[in-house]
Design brief:
heterodimer, A: 285 residues, mainly alpha, two-stranded antiparallel ribbon, globular, B: 399 residues, alpha/beta, Rossmann fold, six-stranded mixed sheet, five-stranded parallel sheet, 13 strands, 41% helix, 15% strand
């Protein structure tokens, strides 16, 4: 059970990265390759707030959310909006990710930093296994985020507008939806999310300038398995990647981890090219 | 006289040509001249992660070594000048910048600060150009004189570390161990060397598990090792993965002695008190780490303490002295040059294989290198190492 809980926690982290990718994807049909780095910045801000400034947890949550939202907003204005070809956005957001890695290294240094968790750092017994409170919190947080986002997209005007943009950008514009403003808002929201979750991810992963690079690829695989644009898919994709990673490491050996993850990805893409939860669309050729 | 003008002009031209040829021949043939002894220090100062601090310490050590040698008459009277090139730990950048520098000046010596990818890219070029080099990022060929006769590896390799481990494990009556190592090139070599070498010394290896250095949870591998019930865990880890492993071991409640390598000792969280690091937490209570004796503070180690003082006078020592091998580089070159009376690269390389030169160098970070004509790795003895418990690091040394 300890292994399963660990796998679910790691999977939850990948799922949260994938959720961030999805928020931007449905609004602008592109990937923000700096999403994992935004989460890294959130973890660093959490470290500064909790350890260096000794601020209350709730205050740090708000500060981290605000700072990373501003960074994400700046990214949209500087590296996304001026770019006409959506394909080039892949390159510009990748550039932002490198920039954030370097900035984090300059500000917080190169060594991993411990981010304390509000519920403590002692392992507890759960369902016959052992887990840290932060691991349980990550699992709960990923599920909660997906539930809230699904509710938001189905029950609110702005959520439905986002879905409309994802469905057909031009048609949404013709219906009077401010596509540009919503794309910007989606970037800011993804930053806000990355800032908030920094307080949960940091205690599990440490705040370290290589964190973004570690999370980006697995988050993308989780997204591809679950289906681009699907939030429940991101959650399932992340959990599946976590379980395969831990299972392969325990029963096949560490050398087989990547092999099994990418074998699974290939299998999913061959059987369901759009991912497990995304609908394949017909298109005129 | 007028008839002699063409003859004089021809003689003058010939002299100029010969002079030009002379100044450009072979690495380090300016002995006795006023030319400085040019040292290029490659280091990934602008690299990511812990590599940057390691590179900064490595560069600092060669600068301090130069200060020491210059204060003691230079190398055959030539002042040592160190040119630092920030290669960002990127082989492409390293090769480009090195070639740019070599277009202006031919260095007498090149030292690098790792990683081995940079060494892989630059060492063949240096060898082709006839330039002496010291390397701290070992590659498959870097210590092989038949491939790279002018290069010497300063950093101890897994075979050297193994000697220290065997001494320690035997002293603790540990007869069975499990090995957990990273998937990096060094980690793989470490794991393979220990899995092969320990049984030859009568120590059973119950399990050998590898983890992905980008993974976030190593519990599966730790569980796999624990299932074989070893008396101790031999650990290779570096950076954030070390933190994950220590937490994972604590999480599953495995109370086992952890005998860790120098990569663990070089990771900041192990020596940083909580809340920033893990020092003082239960996670590190079972850990001992292999380090060079010079990496542990000893008030009686005069030469080491002087080296530290020289480094501090130049800049902050950001990593442990494990990365300060380059301090020894110029001490070795000075002793070799004094033996052969020249700074010619080939002659220096030959002299560096001489045990008398290695002894005369009075090196500091490692007290005795063991280069031979067939092996340019340092061949460090087990006596060079000690095992320390995690403690705060001051000026690159454990207290």
């Amino acid at each position: 059970m300890t292994l399963v809980l660990g796998a679910l926690a790691v999977g939850a982290i990948y799922a949260i990265v994938a959720i961030g990718y999805n928020i931007v994807f449905i609004s602008s049909k592109t990937f923000n390759f700096a999403q994992a780095q935004l989460m890294m910045v959130g973890a660093f801000v959490a470290y500064s707030g909790l350890v260096s400034w000794n601020l209350p947890w709730v205050v740090v949550l708000l500060i981290a959310g605000a700072i990373v939202a501003v960074v994400a907003g700046l990214e949209e204005r500087i590296a996304v909006r001026p770019v006409r070809d959506p394909h080039n956005i892949l390159v510009t957001t990748l550039g932002v990710s490198i920039l954030l890695d370097g900035a984090a290294q300059l500000i917080w240094g190169t060594q991993p930093l411990t981010v304390p968790f509000v519920a403590g750092d002692r392992a507890i017994n759960v369902l016959g296994g052992r887990a840290y409170p932060v691991e349980l919190a990550l699992i709960g947080l990923a599920c909660l985020l997906v539930a809230l986002i699904v509710l938001f997209t189905r029950r609110t005007k702005y959520g439905m507008a986002l879905l409309a943009i994802a469905e057909d950008r031009e048609a949404a514009q013709l219906r009077g939806i401010n596509v540009r403003a919503l794309a910007f808002a989606a970037f800011v929201a993804s930053g806000l999310l990355a800032g908030f979750v920094g307080l949960f991810v940091g205690p599990a992963t440490f705040a370290v300038s290589t964190l973004g690079a570690s999370l980006a690829l697995k988050g993308f695989v989780a997204l591809a398995i679950g289906g681009f644009g699907s939030f429940p898919g991101a959650l399932v994709g992340g959990i599946v990647v976590g379980l395969v990673e831990v299972g392969a490491a325990r029963y096949l050996g560490g050398d087989f981890v990547h092999l099994m993850i990418f074998a699974l990805l290939l299998l999913v893409l061959m059987l369901r090219p759009a991912g497990l939860f995304a609908r394949a669309k017909e298109r005129m050729v | 006289m007028r008839r002699n003008i063409p003859l004089v002009a021809a003689a003058a031209s010939l002299a100029l040509v010969l002079a030009a040829c002379g100044s450009d021949s072979g690495g380090g043939t300016n002995e006795g001249s006023d030319e400085p002894f040019r040292v290029v220090a490659l280091g990934g100062i602008g690299a990511q992660g812990v590599l940057a601090d390691n590179a900064a310490t490595s560069v600092l050590s060669i600068q301090a070594g130069a200060a020491y040698v210059n204060a003691n008459g230079g190398i055959l009277g030539r002042e040592v000048v160190v040119e630092v090139i920030d290669d960002k730990a990127d082989p492409t950048v390293a090769v480009t910048k090195l070639r740019e520098y070599m277009a202006q000046h031919k260095p007498d010596l090149v030292v690098n600060s790792g990683p081995s990818t940079v060494a892989n890219a630059t060492l063949p070029i240096l060898n082709e150009e006839g330039i002496l080099s010291f390397n701290i990022g070992p590659t498959a060929d870097s210590a092989n004189p038949s491939k790279l006769p002018l290069n010497f590896d300063l950093s101890a390799g897994p075979r050297d570390y193994l000697r220290g481990f065997v001494t320690y494990l035997k002293s603790e009556n540990i007869t069975s161990v499990g090995i957990l190592h990273g998937s990096s090139a060094y980690g793989e070599t470490f794991g393979a060397t220990f899995a092969e070498g320990l049984p030859k010394e009568g120590i059973t290896v119950t399990a050998k598990e590898v983890y992905d250095v980008a993974a976030l949870d190593m519990t599966p591998q730790i569980e796999a090792v624990r299932a074989t019930n070893p008396q101790a865990l031999i650990l290779d880890a570096y950076g954030a993965p070390l933190g994950y492993i220590l937490r994972n071991i604590d999480k599953i409640g495995w109370d086992v002695p952890i005998v860790a390598n120098n990569s663990v000792a070089a990771t900041g969280i192990i020596s940083t008190p909580e809340p920033d690091g893990l020092l003082g937490t239960p996670f590190v209570k079972n850990v001992v780490m292999e380090v060079y004796k010079s990496t542990k503070y000893d008030p009686n180690a005069t030469a080491v303490n002087e080296a530290v003082a020289r480094m501090k006078a130049i800049g902050e020592i950001k990593a442990t002295l494990i990365l300060a091998y380059n301090y020894d580089a110029l001490l070795l070159v000075k002793a070799a040059a004094e033996k052969v009376g020249t700074t010619d690269a080939a002659a220096l390389a030959k002299a560096l294989e001489d045990p008398a030169v290695q002894e005369a160098a009075n090196t500091v970070i490692i007290s005795r290198y063991g280069f031979t004509a067939t092996d340019h790795s340092p061949n460090v003895s087990g006596e060079e190492f000690t095992f320390v418990r995690p403690s705060p690091i001051k000026d690159g040394q454990y207290s």
